[in-house]
From TrEMBL:
CC terms in the record's Gene Ontology section: mitochondrion
GO MF term (any one): 3-methyl-2-oxobutanoate hydroxymethyltransferase activity
Family of this protein: Belongs to the PanB family.
Pathway, per record: Cofactor biosynthesis; (R)-pantothenate biosynthesis; (R)-pantoate from 3-methyl-2-oxobutanoate: step 1/2
EC number: 2.1.2.11
Organism: Cinnamomum micranthum f. kanehirae
Top-level enzyme category: transferase
One Pfam assignment: Pantoate_transf
InterPro entries found in the cross-reference section: Pantoate_hydroxy_MeTrfase, Pyrv/PenolPyrv_kinase-like_dom, Pyrv_kinase-like_dom_sf
GO annotation terms (biological process): methylation; pantothenate biosynthetic process
Keywords (A to Z) from UniProt: Methyltransferase, Transferase
Keyword Ribosomal protein: no
Protein name in UniProt: 3-methyl-2-oxobutanoate hydroxymethyltransferase
Amino acid sequence: MERERRLGLGREMGDGWRDHEVLVYHDLLGMLQHPHHAKVTPKFCKQYGRVGDAINKALLEYKEEVENKVFPSSTHSPYKMNDDDVDEFICKLQKQGLSQAASSAADAAEQFAAAGTKK
């Protein structure tokens, strides 16, 4: 009788038979640096990097720039909408009952237009 093939995720399956082992690349690259994750990283996994630190640093920098309205700037916003497209977009938001989103979009369009006139 032929036995079933089995895929392991780091635990023995009772009889010790495993045909393949899954190694999650997050563990391999050290992407998750939360203290909880250190407790659950498989013992059979070797970390070849600690990219999680760089990822966390980059995400915190991004969050800070967005909150401080540094990003996105005109350098990173090469696409422009004409006034008719902006009005149509706002109208569609309102028709879908998203009046707060429509109001925010209108405010953003005004701010963008005002910033474009400053040199």
